[in-house]
């Protein structure tokens, strides 16, 4: 086919396309706005692929209003120069002005002279066609279609057609400035310039969506955009105008699909350490159009395919590469801190600041882009929520202990989405709860829920109850606030929580590699000079390099996690989440109500919306705040901490609402941190709230005591050790709040109104004190012995037996340190409680055990074997024997007026020894541990205990041998209140069974469940015992009287004999 035939074919094609589009009249303004009824659509939408023919253009222009001047291009645009010719003089006709303006804007001419003179391209074919049609030799807007067609198809555009159209559009924009305000032809001239701009925009969309110009593919157009952005002279005004035009003509999706696909695929190959900014700027410009934002989620590649895997989402979906931009990128985070081993703290801070500064910009730009999508349309908003929801569902392994990168999405990708969602939630997550009622607490029952929690552990409900509840689906649609809130809660857990988990993993790996390096360096010494030396050295070098990468990665993760700007947002959202959880648990779902305190406790049965919430809704927030309290406490301290206090008290008061015992222990742990003194020795950051918050004043002490009891049985394999940790936290908090009389008054009231509850608490406190005291002293004795055998510094030739003893010493020291701290807390708590309500400690269920524990530990501290507790550096183990003795003796003095306690002390046959009391008096006096008045009281207490002991010994003589049926089967003492157990039918003393049930709610003889209310008084046996005691007393008195008479008679006889 000849060139002429090809040209004729193209002309016919142009005429056909023009006829096809001639029916639609178009606004030719520089940046047309899409109508509300028309947005870009995908399949089935007819493309507008070329400009209208001349007649339709004329009709359109005749109906067009006067256009507004478009925004001028950037100053650094390559085509920013003014047209070379001045504004046409009045003597120049409109047709001549139009010809010259089109020629200068498009750099084309119908004359070969202009090509040589002005650098315009001579369109020979067009010139011949126009001359044949009407003999004209002037360019006009009626021929604009043909002009651009010939220019783009017949002559090569350098560097690319996109650049040519952009420059032409820019020249037309600049030419508008030269049209004088008083020019009589101003309106017509502006319309010509509008048409030039409009045709440039249409042809830009045409070359992007078709293969009309073989020299420029849609992918190359995207590349040109990025290249221009790199150069700092991006065509952003032009691109925005193209986008608006494509939206108006319903070709937006066709225009964006190839461009965005290319941008996303290209960015996926760029790392965070590379030049990614051009891609962000390009996408920002595209999304600046609301029309684009409204249909962006309909573009190819936005949705996640069903066969996608978590690790690939960040690189294969349309938004993925943008959301993955992060210093946490695996390709660069190991290099962010060069030579981390030799970096000073100042250097580390400098590198961290640089990372944070750049990352803030990226995060904010990502948020702005996602925010535009959210505001683009209802459809785009929901599509973005579904996108985030599916990513969340695919990343449940992120918080697992053992997880590899090929199982989950990248850290930076997940953290970026977390940030975006927290920012999207910021408008409604205020501390006043003004919009909290917009959050649908039954979200997970709705069909439009974008998160699958079917395999998540629920706060309280079991799997069967949750499945039954969720089986009934709600039909109404959830609002954006609800979607955003629950998505953010999930991402705080899997995104931010996953990053915290990653930090822990890196710490563990670094420590492990440190040990490996130490061992390999020793191995290298062994293999020096042998053939194995290069092999060992090579392995050692690889380990060193990997260790450097791990440390750099750890510092990078630290930079993100310790970023105050980001963490402040996360803290606020976490506290808001706690408020929502309280609202969900509250029966009326109205919390917070201004001016009203929370009414506690809640009903025993928790509402189903709360019971079926995922456990991570509570767990992630507590873990996160506890993490910050260790590393960035100021971020928590400066937050709305009063809301957290109410949250902790609420669920410690209603512990049955939370199934997981570890979650409940975290509530106590948070209060513990709040009670700790600050670095300057001042009160903890929550102490002022303990003393002023109405909910705390009313419910905190009872809640702590309640959990102290409950933690005895957690149902976990580690419950024995877990309970001591929780009780340690509780003891510290109680010691802090004890200074407030309101709490002491509450304690006294508690001991009178709920005797069983209080006795149960005291019994467990005694159990702990007894066990911990015993273990502590035993470990100290072990340390005492081992320190004699193990030298302080290990010799180089230490044998295996000596090394084992050194290991045993280290183990005993660790245990002694832990046990001793817990012992101190338990004894301090006992001292506080006995000082406030001594009578409560004289109940039959606990008084004997308390006295036995006290006597035993007094003997250990001052008795003959106390020398075994002498160890080197006792403060290392928190062991202060004098202080411990002083506190123990204070407990005795607190209870000295309680007759039952004094009797129990004196009757303790195992440990009571008056000599121990005398030695204690001597130590207290020697070291001035007590005042003179206290020392006098101690002497009086000792004398009283000795007197009771003597009286009891006399009483035992009265009773003589006691029949077995009168003895308690567990304690082997004479029963005072015999009762019959309902299932085993065994008779036991009431005080003994009460004491047993405090620790174990089962019959001690057959393990059947037992309540104290079920026991039956054995009145007959009680009467027999009473009669037995009366009879024996009478017999004893008779025998005593007879003995006295006999003694007196013997004395008289002796006197007579002496007289005789």
Automatic annotation (TrEMBL):
Residues 961-1035 form the U-box domain. Pathway: Protein modification; protein ubiquitination. GO terms for cellular component: cytoplasm; nucleus; ubiquitin ligase complex. Residues 1-94, 1036-1060 are annotated as: Disordered. Residues 21-58 have a biased composition (Polar residues). It is an enzyme of class 2 (transferase). Residues 1036-1046 have a biased composition (Basic and acidic residues). Its EC number is 2.3.2.27. Keywords: Coiled coil, Cytoplasm, Nucleus, Transferase, Ubl conjugation pathway. GO terms for biological process: ERAD pathway; protein polyubiquitination; ubiquitin-dependent protein catabolic process. Residues 503-530 form a coiled coil. Residues 59-75 have a biased composition (Low complexity). It catalyses: S-ubiquitinyl-[E2 ubiquitin-conjugating enzyme]-L-cysteine + [acceptor protein]-L-lysine = [E2 ubiquitin-conjugating enzyme]-L-cysteine + N(6)-ubiquitinyl-[acceptor protein]-L-lysine. GO terms for molecular function: ubiquitin-ubiquitin ligase activity. InterPro entries: Ub_conjug_fac_E4_core (IPR019474), UBE4 (IPR045132), Ubox_domain (IPR003613), Znf_RING/FYVE/PHD (IPR013083). It is found in: Cytoplasm; Nucleus. Belongs to the ubiquitin conjugation factor E4 family. This is RING-type E3 ubiquitin transferase.
